[in-house]
Design brief:
This protein is an alpha/beta fold. About 25% of the residues lie in helices and about 20% in strands.
Length: about 400
């Protein structure tokens, strides 16, 4: 154990899984550096106005609860459903300030790339001797100054929220997409920017829970400002009723959103026009014009329909940043871009994991890469998949830390 205490662990991303991994590693006696390109919980802050589907009990660990209580902080009720902002303020931020992580947290430090010092990607292929060569990371601070950092273990928990997917056919950028202003996240309709949507023509694209959350917020905005309602178009690639309504769903927020989304898909919600089985084909914006022409392709008839809108909101998913470890020997799934062993396990479990609540961690062996001591945990371990729960990431941490110690 004396040798392991001297091992240097670099954790990339100070989100829910990154902060907990850093605390676990410190309790194991490792030297830890936790790098975050923004603030602690940066990705969660982007959806701070959105309520989590899952209660506090599924989003914090026994360790986290214990450490917060040691700091004199009262825990939120385990059956309450926090907003993203509450999760950061009442959990992630305090934990990041725990004495265990003193001088360990580097905010506004972005890890640009990870490699092996003096060993190239194509050398020592599948050879455990690669573990004898330290990792070398290029890190850039808020002033743009770059520096090298070494580590014996690297844990990537950077998630995928920072890399939104494109809107066009087959997942590529649609013609004209890069020249248009597109909102890639769930917008906050209660802040000062809400006037951007009042009285506007808005196109929402996507059929996940982010998309239906956006639709719900737009409906609420219209109810709050009937004098200037937004006209909303909703485009998604499937047929009507895209949301699975689970009988007896124990997550009430998810159940309510599924019902609402299916009501919208049937044209039952005033102010929102459903456009099922359509795909964004092209954008066209005249110089000096605020409006944008969006061409939607009907996937059944192959006809192209023109819709003129003032705002476009794309909630079509997010992609893992695989460029970060391009120079490492990481085996990725050709479909999800998640680690291959875990991806295969998820595929075997109902084609991608099934209901997120029914999932359990697939075991530490699915988290191993050909690259020794390099781990991808948290939402990024699911690649392009969206069925990840923080609870699963907490299980992953314990398995990896047991392996390392």
């Amino acid at each position: 154990m004396e040798e392991s205490k001297r091992r240097r662990v670099a954790i990339l991303g100070a989100g829910p899984v990154g902060v907990e991994a850093a605390l676990s590693a410190r309790e194991q006696g490792f030297d830890v550096k936790l790098f975050e390109r923004g603030e602690v919980g940066e990705h969660v802050r982007h959806w701070g106005h959105v309520q989590l589907f899952s209660p506090w009990s599924l989003n914090r660990s026994e360790r986290g609860e214990r450490l917060l209580q040691e700091m004199g902080q009262e825990l939120e009720p385990e059956d309450a459903f926090p907003l993203g902002s509450e999760y950061v303020a009442r959990y992630l931020e305090p934990l990041s300030k725990h004495p265990l992580l003193e001088n360990c947290v580097y905010t506004h430090h972005e890890v640009i790339s990870v490699a092996r010092a003096q060993v190239l990607k194509g050398e020592l292929i599948g050879d455990s001797a690669r573990a004898d060569v330290p990792f070398l990371m290029v890190v850039e601070d808020a002033q743009g100054v770059q520096s090298y950092h070494e580590a014996d273990v690297v844990i990537d928990t950077t998630g995928s929220y920072g890399k939104p997917a494109a809107l066009g056919p087959g997942g590529v950028g649609a013609i004209g997409e890069r020249d248009c202003e597109v909102e890639r996240y769930v917008p906050d309709m209660e802040d000062d920017s809400s006037f951007d949507y009042r009285g506007k023509r808005v196109l929402v694209v996507g059929a996940g829970y982010s998309a239906v959350t956006t639709l719900k917020l737009l409906r609420e905005l219209n109810e709050a400002h009937p004098e200037a309602p937004a006209k909303v178009f909703w485009s998604w690639r499937e047929a009507a009723a895209p949301y699975m309504e689970i009988e007896g769903d124990v997550l009430p927020q998810r159940a309510a959103l599924a019902r609402f989304g299916n009501e919208v898909s049937r044209g039952e919600v005033e102010g929102i026009e459903p456009c099922p089985m359509t795909q964004v084909w092209m954008f066209s914006r005249e110089p000096g014009q605020d409006s944008t022409k969006v061409f939607l392709k009907d996937l059944k008839t192959h006809l192209i329909e023109e819709v003129v809108v003032d705002r476009v909101i794309a909630n079509v998913g997010y992609l893992p940043d695989t460029e970060l470890y391009r120079e490492l020997q990481v085996h990725l799934c050709y479909a999800s871009e998640g680690p291959m062993k875990l991806a295969a396990s998820l595929l075997a479990a109902s084609g991608g994991g099934g209901d997120c609540l029914a999932q359990t961690s697939a075991g530490v062996e699915t988290l191993l890469n050909p690259e020794p001591n390099f781990f991808i945990l948290g939402a990024k371990s699911y690649g392009r998949g969206s069925a990840f729960l923080i609870r699963l990431g907490l299980e992953q941490i314990e398995q990896v830390m047991t392996l390392l110690s």
